[in-house]
Structures are given as structure tokens and as C-alpha cells.
Predict the structure of Parkin coregulated.
Amino acid sequence: MVEEEAGGGPAKPGGNRLSQKQEPLGHVKKSKPQVSDGFTVKAMMKNTVVRGPPVAGAFKERPRKPTAFRRFYERGDFPIALDHDTKGNRIAWKVEIEKLDYHYYLPLFFDGLCEMTFPCEFFARQGIHDMLEHGGNKILPVIPQLIIPIKNALSLRNRQVLCITLKVLQHLVLSADMVGEALVPYYRQLLPIFNIFKNMNVNSGDGIDYSQQKRENIGDLIQETLEIFERHGGESAYINIKYMIPTYQSCILN
């Protein structure tokens, strides 16, 4: 009599023993990975775009804030007016510049270095040059009050404001005796921006670089300013400049 399995079908040879295809107990069957071609590691590397590091933004222009100079100008607190002549615009001072209170007016005009719209930007910058030309001994005591306005103007990182501020700094150092030495303790506030833009020179190739004629090349202006700082800053000027700007080479020692 043919034995039947529990399922009702005829029993296979060997009875209820392990089938020929059945693995013994304790054996782990290895399965092959089922990975499609489109999702292999190699295919993913081909289709992957590696994103670079974020931009540091060292040269990015910073937003401007309202200045005290604009507020005072709109209230009519400055003894100035706009005068037109054949040479262009100039400031008509309502009082003699030598009689101005430099501790009050000069820091306000330096605060206007951040202005970029007419007439505030014209009055601020031309007013600074006029006061530096006629200031004499009144300029040196005001130096500590000028550092924050100068630092604010440099920190904007605006190309136009940088050029104007560098020219003002050159005029400031040459305006009176001992001014260059008085600026040395404040190099840590002023020179970091110099170090960032020091190598920003215009490469015009075979063309003509008109920015050099207009003195609007930031790299050249920074180099000129540093050399003036060194020449008029006394014995400790170079070592302090070198500490803040390691790539600077002395114009006196070399």
C-alpha cells in the first residue's frame, strides 16, 4: 500500500525525511544582492554633483546704516552751503574754518564717509579735506574720535567708499605733525580690511587701466597708504603693520 503524506499526495521516496533540496539545520543560505544598474554605487558617483564650500563673503558689501552726518545736515546744523563755479562744486563755509570746533565737527564729517548719495557724500568728503587743510594743531587731539567713523567706512567694503577713505587717511597723516604716530595704536582696528583688499589690483592686460589715473585701484591705494603710515608712523610703525599684514614689505628697510 502506498503511503500518503499529510497533504494528501503520494509520499516521495524517503518518507518524511528531509527532501533532497532542503538544507540541513543550521545552514544559512546566502542570497545574492538585488541591485539595479541605476542605483549601484558606481552609477550614483557618476550622477552626483559635489557641492563646494560656502562662500566666505570677505569681499561682500555690507549694508549701510543711517549716519549722524545726514541727520545733522538735514536739520541744517552745519555752517555750509553748496557753491557752483567754473571749476565745479565746492563748499561755501559760513564761518572761518580755523574757528570751528574740531572736536565737534570733524568726527561728524568723518561719519559722513559712509554716505554715497549727493549732496551728503560731497559735503562730507570735501568738508573733511577742507578741515584737514586748515586744521593744523587742532587735528591731533581729535584722532581718537575719528577711529570709529573710519572703521565703519572701511567695514562697508564698498569699493567707492574704500577708495575715498584711503585717500582721506593719506591726507589725515600728512595734515599735521605726529598724526601718523598717533594712528599706530589703532592699526588693529584699521588694517584688517587693508589685509583683505591688499591684492585687489585690476588686471587690464594690454588695455589701459584708467583707474590708475583716477587713483581708484584699491590695491595700489592700500600700498600707498601703508607706505605713508610707515614713513610717518615712527619706529614702531613697520613692526605693527607687519603684524597685521604679513605680506607687507618695508618701503624704508628695502
The chain has eleven helices and two strands. The first strand starts at residue 80 and ends at 85. Residues 33-39, 203-213 have pLDDT under 50 and may be disordered. The radius of gyration is 37 Å.
